[in-house]
Amino acid sequence: MSRSQSPRTQADWQALAAGLAFESRAFIDDAFVAAASGDTFESRNPATNEILAQVASCDAVDAELAVTAARAAFTGGEWSRLAPGKRKKVLLRLADLMEANKHELALIDTLDMGKPVSSSLGDMNGAIACIRYQAECIDKLYGEVAPTGEDALALVLREPIGVVAAIVPWNFPLMMTAWKIAPALAAGNSVILKPSEKSPLSALRLAQLAKEAGIPRGVFQVLPGFGHTAGKALALSMEVDCLAFTGSTAVGKQLMQYAGQSNLKRVYLECGGKSPNIVFADCKELDKVAKHAAAAIFHNQGEVCIAGSRLLVENVIREEFVERVLKAAETMQPGDPLDPESFMGAIVDETQHRRILDYIRQGVEEGARLRTGGQAIDGPGYFIPPTVFDGVTPQMTIGREEIFGPVLAVFGFDSEEEAVALANDTPHGLAAGLWSQDIDRIMRVTRRLQSGQVFVNNWAGGDQTMPFGGVKQSGNGRDKSHHSLEEYSSLKSVWMALHRD
Ligand code: NAD
């Protein structure tokens, strides 16, 4: 099939995949280059275990080159001092190019990390919408004139921060990228993107599109490599002014230390979760709620920061509700990621596959009741079916730790107070859901949940207008909405003395 046609069937996607060529070099100072060391790492398709590309493995030397180019671009002002309306035009051009190439971008993420292609297409729509939203925001964000007497004019100006390093994970490779780079670029910063070593390829394709869109030299660069080499070098750099991170809580903690050891750069963290999804007995349409509860954990193979991994069900309906969840889970089995009908795809790699199976083993050993799933599906790729444990308690490992896989832990509760206490009994605070028809209860519980976002009678609803981020050890940053744009700028207070006569 030709590139201009939209793929619809599994065969269409396979044909498109057969014709793909991957950019696998780093994008530094406006050029695609090998790592200075010449080192590469393998990018594999986790659904087939085939090697897709040998990708430049950047380290501290390459990071230094990128940081120098980013700083020069920022100081030069071609982007940082460009009128916001002109930056907007370039970013809208980038969004248009992404739109024109969205099937290819979606396919790259699917091949690189195993998610179903229909899900990747949804991610592309989200990524493009984010770039457009932030581009449109930037020429509508005003500074302030502070209240003074006649003897002064006091301005609060909003300025770009400088060099932003965006370090992102593999579970939504291009969408997480867009959530960082769109506001950071719109605000006028120079951005160095460090994609995950497990999914670097769409970021490199994006670099090609950014160049084509006209983003000036050194303003957007992509540094593929490992966390402990490329990522750490950026985080310790004295010339990086801000770290925008999405990833695990453990690495988030390290980044704060690196900032302290270096130049006190700003650190925005979007970290892990163990999100509670609370079902009260008064909620309506239990079948529909059960489907949402299953999708909340099995979407993207459970590799979702806001996965509804803890299902808290009022005990009076628990038995029947779990049966409905099991029925829904049955329809969500993993399949070929290139089949648009597949609900789940492959687990990202062997390490994550092993990790998930290890958690399942611990769940069984610690006495949780395995109701479905639990066994790996035979390879060559890495597949795990929807897995549901009932009778989970907060003491069990699977009830406490983020698994990042298709494993649901069901808890029972008898009262609203118990539900809230269970929900908040976690170091994380990224997302929470509640299902009820009682508006008083909805408002009471919503206010008591320690969570960056609360979904009422839905899971994962929202759009670009809503800030996305966590509390507690889920992080301190906010992606999306104009709040994220504000994070990537500094306030400058200007007090101008005026003569009164
Ligand atoms: P990770 O923390 O292992 O890696 C994330 C990124 O950090 C990668 O690019 C990695 O190379 C880099 N990194 C690792 N060690 C580093 C170091 N020492 N210095 C600098 N960079 C380093 O996370 P992951 O496995 O890629 O992603 C899964 C995690 O991401 C989960 O915990 C998930 O909840 C979280 N996540 C959070 C959100 C959110 O918005 N809150 C969204 C998606 C994923």
Question: Which short descriptors sum up this protein?
Answer:
19 strands, binds nicotinamide-adenine-dinucleotide, Ald_DH_N, oxidoreductase, Ald_DH_CS_CYS, Aldehyde Dehydrogenase, Chain A, domain 1, alpha/beta, single chain, Aldehyde Dehydrogenase, Chain A, domain 2
Layout of helices and strands, plus pairs?
Blueprint: H1 10-18, E1 26-28, E2 31-33, E3 40-45, E4 50-56, H2 60-76, H3 84-100, H4 102-113, H5 117-138, E5 144-146, E6 152-160, E7 163-167, H6 173-186, E8 190-194, H7 201-213, E9 220-222, H8 227-236, E10 242-246, H9 249-261, E11 266-270, E12 276-279, H10 286-298, E13 310-314, H11 315-330, H12 350-365, E14 369-372, E15 387-390, H13 397-400, E16 407-413, H14 416-424, E17 431-435, H15 439-448, E18 453-456, H16 481-487, E19 489-497
Helix pairs in contact: 2-8, 3-5, 3-7, 4-5, 4-7, 5-6, 6-16, 10-11
Nicotinamide-adenine-dinucleotide is lined by residues 167-171, 176, 194, 196-197, 226-228, 231-232, 235, 246-248, 251, 254, 270-273, 305, 402, 404, 430, 470, 474-475.
GO molecular function: aldehyde dehydrogenase [NAD(P)+] activity
Active site: 270
Domain Aldehyde dehydrogenase: 33-494
